[in-house]
Amino acid sequence: MNFEKTENIIKTAKKILIISHINPDGDALGSTCGLYQMIYNRFKKRADLCALTYLSPVYKFLPNIEYAKSSYDKSLVYDLVITVDVAALDRLGDMRILFEKAKTTINIDHHKTNNNFGDYNYVMPNASSAGEVLYKLFKNSGWKIDKNTADCLYTAILTDTGGFRFDNTTEDVFLAVADLVEAGANPNEIYTNCYELKSKSYVMFQNYCVNKAQFLDDDKIAYMTIYKRDLERFNANDDYTEGLAETLRAIVTTDISFVAKEVEPDKVCKISMRSKKFDVSKICMAFGGGGHARAAGCTIKSSVDNAVKKILNEINKYVREVREQ
Ligand code: AMP
Ligand code: MN
Ligand code: MN
Question: pTM of the full predicted structure?
Answer without folding.
Answer: 0.96
